[in-house]
């Protein structure tokens, strides 16, 4: 293991704000091209000790607001409102995954610039309007500090550039693009065969929010 330079000579770690634990012996267990794994010891106020293991990205530019973006792309086409979704095989899950378009923020990019670029690359759709950008949020904070901003964009589905969108994928990517009517999103998700396809949590939370907003 590689000793983390944030440790003091006695093995203690600088105490983060609002942390109720005493942290010590933080170490990088493995360091790869894209991620690293770490572990740190912690002690509770009553003296109980444990070890926390976590995953961290190696790719976040210093000035970037988050590691990446997820994109809620609302497509208005032929008088209807659609959401752009993607489907791709995720090796860690061992299944296809239904997701929002997403990607990492490059150096020098804002979250909104990254969202427009990633939408074009993954789906071929061109957005001319950013509606909103969320606050920083974390995808699975018990396991990783992987962070994102959620960016909502509008797409004119009747515009010439969006009539036959062409993806600009990396050589290692294999992504299927779907347009699902927003009013039918939860029904579409509910009818998926979970033995072969799973749903990304950000997308599922959005679909549940739409459904719950209509409940009395």
TrEMBL record:
<dbReference type="GO" id="GO:0005634">
    <property type="term" value="C:nucleus"/>
</dbReference>
<protein>
    <recommendedName>
        <fullName>Nudix hydrolase domain-containing protein</fullName>
    </recommendedName>
</protein>
<dbReference type="InterPro" id="IPR000086">
    <property type="entry name" value="NUDIX_hydrolase_dom"/>
</dbReference>
<feature type="domain" description="Nudix hydrolase">
    <location>
        <begin position="64"/>
        <end position="205"/>
    </location>
</feature>
<dbReference type="GO" id="GO:0006753">
    <property type="term" value="P:nucleoside phosphate metabolic process"/>
</dbReference>
<dbReference type="Pfam" id="PF00293">
    <property type="entry name" value="NUDIX"/>
</dbReference>
<dbReference type="InterPro" id="IPR020084">
    <property type="entry name" value="NUDIX_hydrolase_CS"/>
</dbReference>
<dbReference type="GO" id="GO:0047631">
    <property type="term" value="F:ADP-ribose diphosphatase activity"/>
</dbReference>
<comment type="similarity">
    <text>Belongs to the Nudix hydrolase family.</text>
</comment>
<keyword id="KW-0378">Hydrolase</keyword>
<dbReference type="InterPro" id="IPR020476">
    <property type="entry name" value="Nudix_hydrolase"/>
</dbReference>
<dbReference type="GO" id="GO:0019693">
    <property type="term" value="P:ribose phosphate metabolic process"/>
</dbReference>
<dbReference type="InterPro" id="IPR015797">
    <property type="entry name" value="NUDIX_hydrolase-like_dom_sf"/>
</dbReference>
């Amino acid at each position: 293991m590689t000793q983390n330079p944030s440790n003091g000579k006695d093995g203690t770690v600088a105490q983060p704000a609002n942390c109720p634990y005493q942290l010590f012996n933080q170490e990088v267990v493995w360091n790869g091209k894209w991620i690293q794994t770490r572990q740190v010891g912690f002690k509770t106020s009553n003296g109980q000790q444990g070890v926390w293991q976590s995953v961290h990205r190696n790719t976040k530019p210093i000035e970037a607001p988050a590691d990446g973006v997820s994109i809620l792309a609302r497509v208005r086409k032929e008088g209807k409102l659609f959401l752009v979704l993607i489907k791709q095989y995720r090796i860690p899950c061992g299944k296809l995954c239904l997701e929002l378009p997403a990607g990492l923020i490059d150096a020098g990019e804002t979250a909104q610039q990254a969202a427009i670029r990633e939408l074009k690359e993954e789906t071929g759709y061109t957005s001319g309007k950013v509606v909103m950008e969320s606050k920083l949020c974390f995808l699975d904070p018990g396991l990783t500090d992987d962070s994102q901003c959620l960016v909502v964009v509008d797409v004119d589905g009747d515009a010439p550039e969006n009539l036959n969108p062409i993806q600009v994928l990396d050589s290692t990517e294999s992504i299927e693009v779907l347009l699902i009517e927003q009013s039918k999103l939860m029904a579409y998700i509910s009818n998926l065969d979970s033995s072969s396809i799973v749903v990304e949590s950000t997308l599922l939370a959005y679909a549940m929010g739409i459904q719950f907003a209509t409940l009395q």
